[in-house]
Design a protein that fits this description.
This protein is of the alpha+beta class and about 250 residues long. The chain is about 20% helix and about 30% strand. Strands 3, 4, 5, 6, 7, 8, 9 and 10 form an eight-stranded antiparallel β-sheet that branches. Bound molecules: iron/sulfur cluster (2 copies).
């Protein structure tokens, strides 16, 4: 079975790809692993990557179909695939039909989490609050999405599209998590009035400097110091350091 290298290529047709670093400079990349089917092939491990809000949104646009999670009235998680999305600056517009439980959950609760995964081992997670678009703007944004995604006319032809209702997310956080860098890359961004809630682990002043956590960290994401410190941007949040610290100096954030 032939093995094909995965190389990130910018594309004029798809600007979302143009913002991804090109993997042609082999000096910056290590080549690791071969999939059993030979199709996933090599994974290029990069030393580092610098991310920003707009690039994350471009990448979500390129992925296209995203997972949208909400909670229902019983607090149970509900997730579905959504592709009827329009990106306007940092605003994320999307539509659903008024009769769907998805619509009800958005109106009742509004919290929504969006997840996209790229072929370059990047997870992009948007967490925010969706609100209904004002009545006067509903048709404008709906028609724009129908124009961008003509397949929708097949789903809701003619006047039946009036059952659709538009939502927008303006305040949200983005978590970018990339497994194709060494060490891994994790970055957080905020848009509008959203606030990032800290996750993962933190080393406290109870640290005695034994170095055990450094030895067991799979990503070498801990620097020596008084106390030792976790580089949060390189942390898997796996908890291995937490489990091995002899004096319980590492706490969950
Ligand atoms: S294992 Fe605990 S005590 Fe030892 S260096 Fe790490 S945080 Fe400090
Ligand atoms: S949680 Fe895991 S990746 Fe993060 S510092 Fe601890 S051992 Fe390393």
């Amino acid at each position: 079975m032939p093995v094909v290298a995965l190389v990130v290529q910018p594309s004029r047709r798809n600007p979302a790809l143009a913002v991804v670093p090109v993997a042609r400079n082999k000096a910056r990349y290590q080549t690791k692993g071969v999939s059993s089917d030979g199709r996933s092939a090599f994974l290029h491990i990069r030393n580092s990557i610098s991310m920003d809000i707009q690039t994350c949104l471009n990448k979500l646009g390129y992925v296209g179909v995203l997972n949208f999670a909400t909670v229902d009235k019983d607090g149970a998680p509900q997730v579905r695939n959504i592709s009827a999305i329009h990106y306007e600056g940092t605003d994320i517009y999307f539509l659903t039909a008024r009769g769907k439980s998805f619509c009800r959950q958005l109106i009742d609760d509004g919290r929504v989490q969006i997840l996209g995964y790229t072929r370059y081992k990047e997870t992009i997670r948007v967490s925010g609050k969706a609100v209904q678009v004002p009545e006067a703007e509903q048709v404008k944004w709906r028609d724009l999405i129908y124009e961008e995604q003509p397949y929708l006319e097949n789903v809701y032809p003619g006047e039946t599209k009036n059952i659709d209702t538009m939502f927008v997310i303006k305040d949200y956080t983005i978590e970018y998590f990339c497994l194709s860098t060494r060490p891994i890359t994790r970055e957080y961004f905020t848009v509008g009035n959203a606030v990032v809630k800290p996750k993962g682990y933190q080393i406290t002043d109870a640290c005695i400097g034994c170095g055990t956590c450094q030895k067991v960290c799979p990503q070498n994401a801990i620097d020596a110091g008084e106390p030792f410190i976790i580089r949060q941007n390189n942390c898997l949040q796996c908890g291995n350091c937490f489990e091995h610290c002899p004096v319980e100096a590492i706490i969950r954030r």
